[in-house]
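pipeline stage [seq->struct] | target=VOC family protein | organism=Algibacter amylolyticus | residues=124
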Amino acid sequence: MKNVNPVNWFDIHVSNLNQAKTFYETVFNIKLVDFPAEFGKQSGFPFDPKGLNITGALVEKKDFVPSSNNTVIYFESQDCTTEENLVEQAGGKIIRPKMSIGEFGFVSILQDIDGNAIGLHSRT
């Protein structure tokens, strides 16, 4: 086992992207960047791709329900299917199997044993 932080991305689910952007840009004095329309209504937080920081996005959801569990943390993977193959035997569920996100690679959405949604991200 490597002693490396595997977290590389987060999604914060929101009901209204424009209002959420205004909130985060005002509170943190930053500028978010809108993603291409094919990814849905999303705006990304600034980051340095060569730096050690992680980043994420605000993601507008049509079926949004306010709760304290509207953030998805993504863990880096060599290949999402590796962890997908272990989820059910560990007591979790696969919510969305490995899917392409274009030039950014692939993601899977899983549910842990407490019902929390977590994500996986891989380049292949």
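stage status: PASS
auto-comment: Residues 77-123 form a domain with the 2,3-Dihydroxybiphenyl 1,2-Dioxygenase; domain 1 fold (CATH 3.10.180.10). The chain has two domains: 1-66, 77-123.
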